[in-house]
Amino acid sequence: MEEFESKFRVSMKTKVLLLDKIMNYIVKRKGKQMRPLFVFLSAGACGKIAESTFRGAALIELVHTASLVHDDVVDNANYRRGFFSVNALWKNKIAVLVGDFLLTRGLFLALEHKDYELLGICTQAVKEMSEGELMQMEKARHLDISEDIYYDIIRQKTASLIASCCAVGASSAGASPYEIEMMRKFGEQVGMAFQIKDDLFDYGEEEIGKPLGIDIKEKKMTLPLIYALSQASWLEKRKMIGLVKNESENPKKVQEVIAFVKKSGGIEYARAAMDRYYHLALETLSALPDSPHKTSLRLLVQYTIERKN
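User: That's the sequence. What structure does it adopt?
Assistant: Structure tokens below.
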């Protein structure tokens, strides 16, 4: 990861002064960097970590960072991981162009080294992430998301990128098409569990996490609420949808929705779904031969599921 860190900084260098300043700001406020970790551990579990693994990890991180910068513009968010977002400091026009630069920088990195397979895996993820985000927006207008549609959305929005991390890692280590697909599947299952875990934070089920009720405030239909509504009477369902649609800015009303979800067993239902994907991921991983990288992958998955923030 230390070696990756210096190579990643080089991949973000630019002669444009303003852009370089923003790139330095982005690098300084990076998160846990779990996605590059998934790339390296998947490569090690399927073969040997090579120079192309570092490029694959950089490509993934550039694509991921671009998506976060664009997301903050879409969501009109002023903060990201406790820091000011790019759009809050430099406004939307610059933030959109910065996101575009990051995305094309990643694509160019793959092209100049002829990493066509890695490029194919990543561009598929970008396509799915965009489709998932648009599908969620379309459904949020009517709040008519079924459980199946919810799984489709999170598979595209979140799981597709984790799936790409694992497939890129396997591909960079020279794995067979069967192993690459197996690692893609493993990453997808981890991503599904990871997103359901994130949705549970909204209900204050952990000591720390994202702000309570933020998904409800943003009118995002997540699994605990979808399940609770499916169990409610017609009248109660109509009332709760009305609160989410029209009163999600009112903290008292948000608390009412949270209490309704908890009473309806939505938390337990979502946790059971998360555990299901978690165990599917471990089952998929068990097909790989034992190695320190495989053990670390299992522990990383365990961490993402059991983390408190």
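The chain has a mean pLDDT of 87.
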